[in-house]
Automatic annotation (TrEMBL):
The keyword Glycosyltransferase applies. Coiled coil: none annotated. It comes from Hyunsoonleella jejuensis. Pfam families: GH94_b-supersand, Glyco_hydro_94. GO terms for biological process: carbohydrate metabolic process. SUPFAM superfamilies: Galactose mutarotase-like, Six-hairpin glycosidases. GO terms for molecular function: carbohydrate binding; glycosyltransferase activity. Residues 307-735 form the Glycosyl hydrolase 94 catalytic domain. This is Cellobiose phosphorylase. InterPro entries: 6-hairpin_glycosidase_sf (IPR008928), 6hp_glycosidase-like_sf (IPR012341), Gal_mutarotase_sf_dom (IPR011013), GH65_N (IPR037018), GH94_catalytic (IPR033432), GH94_Enzymes (IPR052047), GH94N_CBP (IPR037825), Glyco_hydrolase_94_b-supersand (IPR010383). SMART domains: CBM_X (SM01068). Keywords: Glycosyltransferase, Transferase. Residues 11-292 form the Glycosyl hydrolase 94 supersandwich domain.
Length: 811
């Protein structure tokens, strides 16, 4: 069964059946103020930080699913319904949801009344706009009652869910005209409030949830909506809400717009009050006035569209396959922006309270984002590096509101530092801005410890060199990329978290082949960088370290048919044919083949063939095989998952691209592309029901071959999968790869392709690239011409800004 379809011209996904297999969501907001919105208008908004500045209450994993959102109720005398179907679930005559680039349109129609709802956050604005167009599509006069509904969260989304002895007494609101202000705790300690307004006079309101919903009713049948009479309640404690009431009369064919604004305000200390106990509303009123007519709202939406036109104009492929085109041109790039904005904090699988920005995650996210807004990437990489420790280790996460490292999670994940080299070099390759290397960047957010960004990279590189184990391979620390491979935890207490429990690395022999491959791959990037900026000596020193690591991997990391995964605390092999379970893993085989370690000796080919044979499935490549069937104290969290799920032999979509890239290094374009299409959402439309999550974005994990339901996806949106797949397809399969000194052209495509075209905006000029594949090969550039003139090799040097160049490539 299909629940919707793509509309590429409008860059929208159109959902035509509201009862999707899981809520299919979208994100609103560009920088500070964000909202999550599902196809039935569920979700919530927050300012910068989904934990500390949550505006509305949302109940994760609730019954029914997806409860809480911006709800509009229509009581037409015969029935009570919502334009987005939920929460009343009254059957509609027509329903449609269009998720676009940072906006969502939901429309519902019933008994001759149509409600079209547009939701978006205007650029640079701390508010969500909700424009509701109500139309009479019948031949008779329509009179009906219209209610809005929003439930406030008491700011901290975590305590909002648990500290009821306090929460039930703190709630405070003010109502002035058609605006309801939520001012809980706005006193000496807090300088912020929220508001919900509508651009018309209202006929009533409610701000107390119990009065509006009824203590034993639910969102599907609120007492006030059923009775058709607001109670004009002013909340004192308990659960404050904001609901407007309006009586509407429409002639046949007539329509009217109501514009709601759900916003957030911060006031300066000396400007907090209008009079004693009355909040200063000036800033809220300014925003409300800015969006109080249809024309103003439409102008703001056009601006948002223009902003996205500009972003998506930087890489446009014309491949002849609409699935690939929509994946590359629209949805994958869009998801990369979302992961850049949110890291792993707020989705329908990430509750917004558990995790802030991840050190390794946010660095990796940059590879799919940096071309969209290099200046934002620059700031991000500086923020991330500022949470590094002086010895090169890092806080694993930081909170976006404070930008300070997250003490609760701590550090010791020994892959973290190397990802900073990826983040910084990706930025330089895209922008050509080497000045970031001279930027003074603090350690542990302490300005007095600041050193240049270049030194941060050296220290990151050295962190691996300084932490080698008995096989001269990198010590794993708390974990490497695989958070669940906890080789130093030895946890027998089910009440402790593997991520934060004591890490017994003292005397540990636990080494990671994943970090080893990572070190070689990004170590070489570091060396290239040193050479380009004239640091020859450092380049030579680093080269020696990388060479040593390559040797150590060949000597101690090769299992005969593939690369080992790790050595455990005692020095026993993990990911070896000698093991009964977990014989082979994806991560080390991905990174070591990307880095072409032992390629001359045939190691890469063997390793990738083994991956194909043992890890590949119909729905993607599983993480390890055979799956672990019992808990192994020396391995940790990985063995707590049932076989086929998550890190225990799930299809972790994040590292499938490492294998794709490894394949392109071998020149096997058919295989690389086959792996790509197996997990790319636009290619999975026909299995929407099984796949379950949004058909327009990647999910972190698809259930593997050992799972109960192979092919079923979970954890959509916030995953490094977005950036890595974007990098794999654009930089390695299509082979258009930013380099320190220009743009490298190195495609590795399916042999049956005749070629493809890409328009790429880069460092201020445009490359119109046409690749031709007359001999139907995968890889190997024969000739490149720029505006008809042949060049040597396949690196397009840095060209003059402001111009457009025609680049013809023959394979
Ligand atoms: C999650 C984490 C990421 C980790 C991965 C594998 O996606 O966000 O940091 O690398 O799981 O464990």
């Amino acid at each position: 069964m299909k629940y919707g379809h793509f509309d590429d011209d409008n860059r929208e996904y159109v959902i035509t059946n509201p009862a999707t297999p899981f809520p299919w969501i979208n994100y609103l907001g560009d920088k500070d103020f964000f909202s999550l919105i599902s196809n039935t208008a569920g979700g919530y908004s927050f300012y910068k930080d989904a934990k500390f500045r949550r505006l509305n209450r949302y109940r994760y994993n609730n019954v029914p699913m997806d409860d809480g959102g911006r709800y509009f109720y229509i009581n037409d005398g015969d029935s009570v319904w919502n334009p987005g179907w939920k929460p009343s679930k009254t059957e509609l005559d027509h329903y449609e949801c269009r998720h676009g680039m940072n906006y969502t349109k939901i429309s519902g129609e019933k008994n001759g009344i149509k409600a079209e709802c547009l939701f978006f956050v205007p650029l640079g604005t701390w508010a969500e706009i909700q424009k509701i167009t109500l139309s009479n599509t019948s031949n008779e006069v329509k009179k009906f009652k219209f209610f809005s509904y929003n439930e406030w969260a008491l700011w901290n989304a975590a305590t909002d869910m648990e500290n009821f002895q306090r929460n039930f007494s703190t709630g405070e609101v003010e109502v002035e005209g058609s605006v309801i202000y939520h001012k809980t705790e706005y006193r000496e300690r807090r300088n912020h409030f929220a508001y919900y307004s509508v651009n018309t006079e209202i006929d009533g309101f409610d701000t107390d949830r119990e009065s509006f919903v009824g203590l034993y009713n639910c969102h599907a049948n609120p007492e006030v909506v059923l009775s058709g009479k607001p109670k004009n309640t002013v909340a004192h404690g308990w659960s404050p809400i904001a609901s407007h009431y309006k009586e509407i009369e429409l002639q046949p064919g007539e329509s009217t717009d109501l514009i709601f604004v759900l916003g957030y305000v911060e006031n300066a200390e000396d400007d907090k009050w209008e009079s004693k106990g009355v909040i200063n509303k000036t800033k809220a009123k300014e925003v409300i006035a800015k969006f109080n007519t249809t024309a103003k709202v439409e102008a703001a939406l056009s601006e948002l569209r223009a902003y996205w036109d500009d972003i998506l104009d930087r890489f446009i492929i014309d491949s002849g396959d609409e699935r690939l085109d929509r994946q590359v041109n629209i949805w994958n790039q869009y998801q990369c922006m979302i992961t850049f904005n949110f890291s792993r904090s707020a989705s329908y699988f990430e509750s917004g309270i558990g995790r802030g920005m991840g050190f390794r995650d946010s660095n990796q996210d940059l590879i799919g984002f940096v071309h969209q807004a290099p200046e934002r990437a620059r700031q991000r990489v500086i923020d991330i590096a500022s949470t590094q420790f002086p010895d090169g280790g890092c806080y694993h996460q930081y909170q976006p509101l404070t930008k300070g490292g997250n003490n609760e999670v701590g550090g010791g994940f020994n892959d973290d530092p190397m990802w900073l080299i990826l983040g910084v070099t990706s930025y330089i390759k895209e922008s050509g801005d080497f000045s970031i290397l001279d930027e003074m960047v603090p350690f542990d957010n302490d300005e007095s410890l600041a050193q240049t960004m270049f030194n941060h990279l050296t220290i990151s590189f050295n962190h691996v060199v300084n932490n080698l184990g008995p096989n001269k391979l990198p010590l794993i620390g708390r974990a490497d990329w695989n958070d669940c491979l906890n080789l130093n935890c030895f946890s027998m207490n089910p009440n402790e978290s593997f991520q934060t429990t004591e890490n017994n690395s003292e005397g540990s022999k636990a080494e990671s082949l994943m970090i080893a491959g990572l070190f070689v791959y990004y170590g070489r990037e570091y060396i290239d960088l040193c050479k380009v900026i004239g640091k020859e000596e450092e380049a030579a020193r680093a080269q020696q370290e990388v060479d040593n690591m390559v040797e150590a991997i060949k000597q101690n990391g090769w299992d005969g048919e593939w690369f080992l995964r790790a050595y455990d605390f005692y020095g026993n092999k993990i990911g070896s044919n000698e093991n009964e379970e977990g014989k082979i893993f994806i991560e080390s085989n991905g990174f070591c083949t990307m880095a072409k370690i032992g390629d001359d000796e045939g190691m890469c080919e063997k390793a990738l063939d083994a991956v194909k044979e043992r890890l590949d499935t119909k729905y993607g490549i599983v993480l390890n095989n055979p799956a672990y069937t019992t808990y192994r104290i020396e391995m940790g969290e990985i063995s707590t998952y049932p076989p086929g799920y998550k890190e225990n032999a799930g299809i972790f979509c994040h590292n499938n691209p490492w294998i794709m890239i490894g394949e392109t290094e071998l020149g096997r374009g058919d295989q690389a592309y086959e792996y790509y299409t197996k997990i790319a959402p636009a290619f999975l439309e026909d299995i929407q029901e099984l796949h379950k999550t949004e058909p327009y974005v990647y999910s972190q994990m698809i259930a593997g071959k050992d799972a109960f339901k192979p092919g079923e996806a979970k954890n959509s949106w916030l995953t490094g999968t977005a950036a890595w797949n974007y990098a794999a397809i654009t930089q390695h399969i299509l082979g258009i790869r930013p380099a320190l000194q220009g743009m490298l052209i190195d495609p590795c495509i399916p042999t049956k392709w005749d070629g493809f075209k890409v328009s790429r905006k880069f460092r201020g000029y445009t490359l119109n690239i046409e690749v031709k594949n007359p001999n139907h090969i995968s890889k190997g550039v024969k000739q490149i011409t720029i505006d008809g003139k042949p060049i040597e090799g396949n690196l397009i040097p840095v060209l003059e800004k402001g111009k457009t160049y025609n680049v013809n490539v023959t394979l």
